[in-house]
């Protein structure tokens, strides 16, 4: 895929992809961009390569002079992309893996941590919170400059810097957790496989 798809993108993006040490990371990042452009082409019926992707000062990508917002995430063998008009959007997917969740305690509020450790499915509970928090900070747009402990996930909502965020789980595979977050209340989602 790298050989066939990469030349379709800007020189800066090609340099970024070629700078990855692991070919798997390069492949997944490129696949995310391919999915994004394919979705733009199908949903908005326009030439996606004519759209210029810019970065905010916090490195959140966006289309220049375009109301369509997007976000991409990948983990394991899955790449997912979310597009939205009229709202900021963030999405996170994580493969449920056997990690030392105690190493991440400092990223959770006391209430979240209590729910995680009292759960009969601790790993799943941890990844539920982790993907929700990641989706919120991606929607907010300041990324990892925000500590995950500074806000709490409660009933599929969060408040960060006095701004409300709304979350919805996307069930893809039993080995993964995936959440989408918007800064407007989430109604029915339109999910398309590309």
Structure description:
It contains five helices and eight strands. It is α+β, with helices and mostly antiparallel strands and 194 residues long. The chain has two domains: 51 residues, no CATH class; 116 residues, Ribosomal Protein L22, Chain A (Alpha-Beta Complex). A hairpin with a 5-residue loop joins strand 1 and strand 2. The chain starts with a helix and ends in a 12-residue tail after the last strand. The model has no long low-confidence stretch (mean pLDDT 91).
Characteristics:
5 helices, 2 domains, alpha+beta, 194 residues, two-stranded antiparallel sheet, Ribosomal Protein L22, Chain A, 24% strand, globular, four-stranded antiparallel sheet
Amount of helix: 25-40%
The pLDDT mean sits at 91
What is the straight-line distance between the termini?
16 Å
Could you state the CATH homologous superfamily of the largest domain? 4'-phosphopantetheinyl transferase domain
Under the CATH scheme, which architecture of the largest domain would be assigned? Alpha-Beta Complex
User: What is the CA-based Rg, rounded?
Assistant: 17 Å
- Sketch the topology as an H/E string, one letter per element: HHHEEEEEHHEEE
* Strand order, sheet with most strands: 5-8-7-6
Total strands: the figure is 8
Quaternary class = single chain
Shape category = globular
* pLDDT < 50 runs, ≥5 residues: none
Count of distinct structural domains: 2
Query: Largest beta sheet, briefly?
Result: 4 strands, antiparallel
CATH topology of the largest domain: Ribosomal Protein L22, Chain A
- CATH secondary-structure class of the largest domain: Alpha Beta
Q: Which range does the strand content fall in?
A: 15-25%
């Amino acid at each position: 895929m790298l050989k066939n798809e990469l030349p379709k993108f800007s020189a800066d993006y090609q340099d970024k992809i070629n700078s990855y040490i692991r070919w798997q990371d390069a492949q997944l990042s490129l696949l995310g961009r391919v999915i994004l452009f394919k979705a733009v082409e199908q949903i908005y019926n326009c030439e996606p390569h004519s759209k210029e992707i810019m970065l905010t000062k916090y490195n959140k990508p966006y289309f220049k002079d375009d109301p369509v917002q997007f976000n991409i995430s990948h983990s394991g063998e899955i790449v997912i992309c979310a597009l939205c008009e009229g709202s900021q959007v963030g999405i996170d997917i994580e493969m449920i893996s056997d990690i030392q969740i105690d190493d991440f305690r400092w990223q959770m509020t006391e209430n979240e941590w209590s729910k995680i450790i009292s759960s009969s499915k601790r790993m799943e509970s941890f990844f539920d919170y982790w993907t929700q928090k990641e989706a919120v900070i991606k929607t907010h747009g300041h990324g990892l400059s925000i500590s995950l402990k500074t806000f709490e996930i409660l009933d599929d909502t969060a408040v960060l810097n006095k701004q409300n965020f709304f979350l919805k789980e996307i069930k893809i595979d039993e080995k993964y957790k995936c959440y989408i977050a918007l800064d407007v209340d989430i109604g029915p989602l339109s999910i398309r496989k590309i």
